[in-house]
Amino acid sequence: MKEEWFELTAPDGLVRRGILTLPDSPAASAVILLPAGLKYHVGPHGLNVQLARSLAAAGHLALRFDPLGVGESDGALPAA
What we know:
This protein has about 80 residues and is an alpha+beta fold. The chain has one helix spanning about 45-55, and strands at about 1-10, 15-20, 30-35, 60-65.
């Protein structure tokens, strides 16, 4: 298993950042782990890390990311 940072620049110029967790062999599928509210890519109590690593161990690529204004991503928190 390998973990890599990635960046995605949107048309608005803001960069979203996250982590790809890759299996040791070619991936059977890809899973996008959506953030729970304003949580960063680790998830509550590290849940997204554990889930991504379990998925990779089962042969799947897992992508987790920070929403705008949270963690490593650019931007400000959305207005309430």
